[in-house]
Amino acid sequence: MTSLPRAPRDEARNRVRHYVITMSIRMICFVLMFVVQPMGWWTWAFGIAAAVLPYIAVVFANAGDDSVPTGVESPRIEIEAPAEERPSASQEPPVITISETVAHPAEPRS
């Protein structure tokens, strides 16, 4: 998991999706403004929403992830490990000794 921002393609796709949803709600409000009868306070509410939603849709579509600052974390930050138990003075760590012998090449056959 990194703290890098999203890919520009993913961000643009997300902004277009939000814009389409907001404009669809605006179209529904616009239709309901004429369809709902008798006229009342909700007619005005639908009309105001139909007038204001395009502005909101454009502002939110233009405000991408770059408007929100993100702090990038260093990949060198490590999780602290618990302290290891040190052997006592009476315990000596095991020693591995490796002895090598020189292998003589096989004598050629005649």
Essential attributes:
single chain, 110 residues, mainly alpha, 2 helices, elongated
Total strand segments: 0
- Average pLDDT over all residues: 79
Would you tell me the structural class of the helices and strands? mainly alpha
Beta-strand content bin: under 5%
Radius of gyration: 36 Å
Silhouette: elongated
Instruction: Give the distance, in angstroms, between the N- and C-terminal Cα atoms.
Output: 66 Å
Order of helices and strands: HH
Description:
There is one protein chain. The chain is an all-alpha fold and 110 residues long. 45% of the residues lie in helices and 0% in strands. The chain is built from two helices and no strands. The protein has helices at residues 8-35, 41-62. The longest helix has 28 residues, at 8-35.
Short description:
This protein has about 110 residues and is mainly alpha-helical. The protein is about 45% helix and about 0% strand.
Helix and strand layout, with pairings?
Elements: H1 8-35, H2 41-62
Helix pairs in contact: 1-2
